[in-house]
């Protein structure tokens, strides 16, 4: 894919395969399936969400993804994209790809029950000679454990772990740009996975399964901890009544050693916190930075409200939250800290109003209403619609999005 939005560059594979993607209606599986179809493979999206599949069959994307609105109708018309709620279709495939989410439990430990159940269903319908690719984020050791089960049952399939590393909403732009980490429980599995992604047009980096598992967890944990550093600095600047954005601009301007310094803001979403906690679990507290990062990032909404209370009697005020997605220009509310902010504000304010141009909710109001009826506004997500927002109301913008100075 071309780096410029709206442009795509398709790689046509020489040997088309039949591919099934489990969790194929989701944010990881669906864009991957579209890209595979576009380069010549035949793809079956296997997902238990029938309503989601019906939306896909109609040619409509169930969520926002750059370039997907144009690509989905094209691959449907080609006849290469199919949808199914049944695992029986797996026996007809050459490659099975698993993209289901792997949640953490109430103790923030990895919850493997759902993953194990899916894999049992896969084993019931797979056939010898298939390549099984796990793209879900898993706890270190899960892939090798899966390989042992396959060997014990003499299923004669090749098991590989190839984590996805795309940014949600930009998958089709990044799938053929980013190097692909591949691994296998056997040398043959690793070689087949490398060949699959190479034919797809990706540069391949081969690792052992545990190295690939750790590589994915390291990536998301690094980002989460990076955000925590910036949020901690933001809180310190606030206590000194200093302008964090001015400091940020000053110390990053033409100073390459600060290129990795993230901006402050809500660090939410379905992956960063979860993956950091997976890495910390069962590791004898070796990742104490992870627990500290969670305390900082998850504590930011409460910190904002406490700062507001110093200068305002919130009990008689209406506060409006602009943006409820977990990040800017995104329609996904999962693990968005805007909802935690709303919960904290509900205990302190007369009324809390929310708006979002991408998320349809009966609880939300229009941007016009929230501007008219709120006494204070708080930016919850950096949607482009808010960048040039004109308001006479106090606006709390932790991200520095609306007044951003670029180095």
Automatic annotation (TrEMBL):
Keywords: NAD, Oxidoreductase. It is an enzyme of class 1 (oxidoreductase). Pfam families: UDPG_MGDP_dh (PF00984), UDPG_MGDP_dh_C (PF03720), UDPG_MGDP_dh_N (PF03721). InterPro entries: 6-PGluconate_DH-like_C_sf (IPR008927), NAD(P)-bd_dom_sf (IPR036291), UDP-Glc/GDP-Man (IPR017476), UDP-Glc/GDP-Man_DH_C (IPR014027), UDP-Glc/GDP-Man_DH_C_sf (IPR036220), UDP-Glc/GDP-Man_DH_dimer (IPR014026), UDP-Glc/GDP-Man_DH_N (IPR001732), UDP_ManNAc/GlcNAc_DH (IPR028359). One of its GO terms (molecular function) is NAD binding. Its EC number is 1.1.1.136. Coiled coil: none annotated. GO terms for biological process: polysaccharide biosynthetic process. SUPFAM superfamilies: 6-phosphogluconate dehydrogenase C-terminal domain-like (SSF48179), NAD(P)-binding Rossmann-fold domains (SSF51735), UDP-glucose/GDP-mannose dehydrogenase C-terminal domain (SSF52413). Residues 320-404 form the UDP-glucose/GDP-mannose dehydrogenase C-terminal domain. The keyword NAD applies. The keyword RNA-binding does not apply. Belongs to the UDP-glucose/GDP-mannose dehydrogenase family. This is UDP-N-acetyl-D-glucosamine 6-dehydrogenase. The gene is wbpA_2.
